[in-house]
Design goal:
Blueprint: H1 6-12, E1 18-29, E2 33-37, E3 45-48, H2 56-60, E4 67-76, E5 84-95, H3 111-116, H4 125-147, E6 151-152, E7 158-159, E8 200-201, H5 206-216, E9 218-226, E10 239-248, H6 252-273, H7 275-289, H8 302-311, E11 315-318, H9 319-327, H10 330-333, H11 350-360, E12 364-370, E13 386-394, E14 398-405, H12 410-419, H13 428-435, E15 441-447, H14 448-456
Parallel strand pairs: 3-5, 6-9, 11-12
Antiparallel strand pairs: 1-2, 1-4, 2-3, 4-5, 7-8, 9-10, 10-15, 12-13, 13-14, 14-15
Helix pairs in contact: 4-6, 4-7, 4-14, 6-8
This protein binds 4-amino-1,4-dioxobutan-2-aminium adenosine-5'-monophosphate (4AD) and magnesium ion (MG).
Length: 476
């Protein structure tokens, strides 16, 4: 007997036919109405039981959380609230759920509580919706690049290089922790370790993606990345997924065009393909924000904001211009910023990024940053002090994309590597691409969870990945 997904049944409405659904009980009312959900859609299907035809002991086992298989005829519903329902002829309890112990009751649970039971939270409306939107965004990302003749590239997860040069990496080692071998200089002797050298979890696939772009022209990665930064914020994870396109012959302007077009495409895809889930998440957000002061609430309902971003041009502003705007801004003059903007060259904090997005009332692409606050691989401008970097700032999120045109000139790259105090030997393979057929190229990294946060309106990044890893937390 074929099992039908609830999504399919609700779409096709095969009235009069006998169907079987399998799923989990959300509620069971009046010993008569079972609301079943199988995760294929936000919506439940109602199954109507004529309790006189069923054993009372069986009916007792229909509790919130129990897994059932139900067979019956699909009919037009007599009641309000649903168009169709199943008149149940057979019930099989696949898995019982003790109502005394099941932590998910049909009531509102806090997001904090749900994080503690992350093994069960996909069964809630909110997390079901988030996971379905997350899937749709991932699918849209692959589709976008495939349609534009990019190749999906898998870069290593264990690596000997520190792409961002920030040193915030998780070490991968099989050395005996109780008896670590040391060199004559008293340092850890990694030559005795698994790889014969020090190895870490990757912080970015960019450097390897560059190698492939200088052969296949257009590539992208979509994989997990790891950062051992001790940031306990609503925007940082220790393990997150990043999408990194890299394109030969693209300069920074092309890079900005690509990033903007790409973001708009995937947001539009979600708007078109996640209608029910986004409608639900929009209501959830409005509800949540009712308890917040007016100035902390969103300016627009969720889907309106998504439409706004996908239909309007991003504002492109140089770092230097941005510093002028910030220096002369009200919060700076009234000393409302925690970090006051005085001199050119300072790194921007999230309070500044938020101000700029509000100021322009649109996503902002900041470019041409001071060289000393960005990574070694970014192309040096003629002025000798700025690099062809870009960050894309989104409302409510801040930085969602970071990217750049890459330094393609051997001598200058070599000099930059030296200035950053990076051991040149460790990057010979990277430098060699500048020796053999080098060319202008650019790319960027999109933090997948920050995108999912933006599209779902969730305030905390821990709620848009199934099992978040943050300082002090690696449960499940
Ligand atoms: O700005 P980042 O560090 O840039 C890179 O890693 C470059 N190699 C990208 C490239 O040019 N190919 O990181 C890129 C994006 C950020 O804009 C942010 O969205 C996300 O990755 N990100 C994080 N997301 C969640 N948790 C963290 N700890 C993150 N760190 C960065
Ligand atoms: Mg960045």
């Amino acid at each position: 007997m074929e099992t039908n997904s609830i999504k399919e049944i609700l779409n096709k409405k095969p009235i009069g036919s006998t169907i079987t659904v399998k799923g989990w009980v959300r509620t069971f009312r009046s010993n008569r109405f079972i609301a079943i959900n199988d995760g294929s859609t936000l919506k439940n299907i109602q199954a109507v039981v004529d309790f006189e035809n069923f054993d009372a002991d069986l009916l007792k086992r229909i509790t919130t959380g129990a897994c059932l298989s139900i067979k019956g005829d699909l009919v037009n519903s007599q009641g309000k609230g649903q168009e169709i329902e199943i008149l149940v002829s057979e019930i099989e309890i696949i898995g019982d759920s003790n109502p005394e112990e099941y932590p998910l009751q049909p009531k509102k649970h806090s997001l904090e509580f749900l994080r503690e039971i992350a093994h069960l939270r996909p069964r809630t409306n909110t997390f079901g919706a988030i996971l379905r939107v997350r899937h749709n965004l991932a699918f849209a990302i692959h589709q976008y690049f495939h349609n534009k003749d990019f190749f999906y590239l898998n870069t290593p997860i264990i690596t000997g290089s520190d792409a961002e040069g920030a040193g915030e990496m998780f070490n991968v080692s099989v050395l005996d922790k109780k008896n670590i071998p040391l060199t004559d200089e008293g340092e850890v002797d990694y030559s005795q370790d698994f790889f014969g050298k020090e190895a870490n979890l990757t912080v970015s696939g960019q450097l390897e993606a560059e190698l492939a772009a200088l052969a296949l022209s257009k590539v992208y990665t979509f994989g997990p990345t790891f950062r051992a930064e001790n940031s306990n914020t609503t925007r940082h994870l220790a393990e997150f997924w990043m999408i990194e396109p890299e394109v030969a012959f693209n300069d920074l302007d092309d890079n900005m065009d690509l990033a903007e077009d790409f973001l708009k495409y995937v947001i539009r895809f979600a708007l078109e393909n996640c209608v029910d889930d986004l409608e639900f998440l929009e209501k959830r957000l409005l509800d949540e924000e009712k308890s917040k002061p007016l100035n902390e609430r969103s300016d627009m309902p969720l889907t309106e904001k998504l439409r706004f971003v996908s239909e309007n041009n991003f504002r492109r502003v140089s770092y230097t211009e941005a510093i002028d705007i910030l220096r002369n801004s009200k919060p700076n003059k009234k000393k409302k910023f925690q970090y006051l903007i005085e001199d050119w060259g300072v790194d921007l904090q999230s309070e500044h990024e938020k101000f700029l997005v509000k100021h322009f009332n649109a996503p902002v692409i900041l470019f041409d940053y001071p060289a000393h606050i960005k990574a070694f691989y970014m192309r040096l401008n003629e002025d000798g002090k700025t690099v062809r970097a870009m960050d894309i700032l989104f409302p409510g999120i801040g930085e969602i994309i970071g990217g750049s045109q890459r330094e393609e000139r051997y001598d200058i790259l070599e000099q930059r590597i030296e200035e950053f105090g990076i051991e040149k030997e460790s990057l010979m393979w990277y430098l060699e691409t500048r020796k053999f057929g080098t060319c202008t190229h650019s790319g960027f990294g999109l933090g997948f969870e920050r995108l999912v946060q933006f599209v779902t309106g969730m305030g905390n990044i821990r709620d848009v990945i199934p099992f978040p890893r943050t300082p002090g937390n690696a449960e499940f």
